[in-house]
Amino acid sequence: CCLLLFVDTTHCQCVVVPVCFSCIAGVMDVVGERKSIAVVLLVAIASKIIGILLAITSVYLFRSYDTSLSIHLSEACPQAISAFCTWDAVYFSSIATGGYNNEQNFAFFPGYPKVLELGSLLSTNLDGCNACWTGVVVNFVLFPIVALLFHVVSKEVLRDRNMALLSTILFCMNPAMPFFNAVYSETSFSFLIYLGLFLLLKYHYHALFSLFIGLSTFIRSNGMVLAGFGAHHFLRLHSFQYQSGIQTLVMIVQCSFALLPYIGMQWYAKGLFCAHEIENKPPWCEGRMSIYAYIQQHYWNVGFLKQYTVSQIPNFLLASPTIIISLWGVFSYMRQRWGLITHLGFDAGVCVGNWFLLHPLQNQSKNKGHSGFYHANVCVFAFYHAFLTVFTLLNAHVQISTRLLCSASPLMFWFVASLNGTKAFRVLVRVWLVYFVAGQILHPLFLPWT
User: pLDDT band at 389, cuts 50/70/90?
Assistant: First the structure.
């Protein structure tokens, strides 16, 4: 009945879904530390296989809305691979095979196309088909590792083994899974940020954290926001220790690693389009706007409140479950831990020498009683998630909020896991399963599920 094989399902009332969520409460009680790793791997691999099968089935049963993909993929390329090479995947594979041959491609950072170039190991001629094959294989291999890293990070933050496991299972069935299966950068991006967070939170390796977050920005621009985790963790870890100028400088330099890929992209674009004496130079060559911001605005109409039009109502509805859960989770944490929020997550205060930047939070004994979603460790993630949610609502295509928040932040999964045993939990899980199945069918057909 259940794919969670380490559970006695005799008394479970199971439904035929990839993971039997009605048995989760039982899983938490009987799954030990070692077996939890097996459960995570099992659910992650099962989720990938189910998603891939749904996507392949959809392209064989239904006609794609946009058939121009045949121009990018050779006739010898199996039809099944087209299920994973639609929408943004066309840009990624095009950059991998042809480079940045036009300014529109600069909306996509080079990290993931470099991963797709590994397809050249399979053939001397790297084409769109080989690039897409490479993306599918890399995503399939990386996702179970991402799930394990997510699980370890969740245990470190929540200090609750059961909730960490449940959150990981929810992550493996998240509504953005079509993008984790397709030739998109979500899987690689999640791998780098959770690897960085794992090294930071478990071993306090600030330099390695900064390195991997810098690499994540090489894949997606929103990786820059994660630089704040390094600074916050450094200050929280050394809150009562004297901060020398050298220590502070080292922290600033390490955090700045996350900005280097973004700066490098601007430098490379200016050298490619602006260095030569040509007529009709792009407007961003002379102005203060970066090429990334210009392209987003010029080609995709991205900007402050530009998506608030009648024609965008369907996209707001598509994004509404993720937005509602995100805001609900953030406000729930704020209401429960307002004192900690006003202290920016520094429950022990921040001290530089003998001078308190932030005084210790009062009633420390009371605050230490929190665990799970309301643990003090979650505070910085609440700030981070709130920023991503608000930024997406105001400045981006709102429909990308599902894949952006699911791949870049764990807070939504922690919050839903904290609702376990409630009617809201059961409703939200069913909504996510609908998104999981519908997305795997619609996205490969070039239908608006982005």
Answer: very high
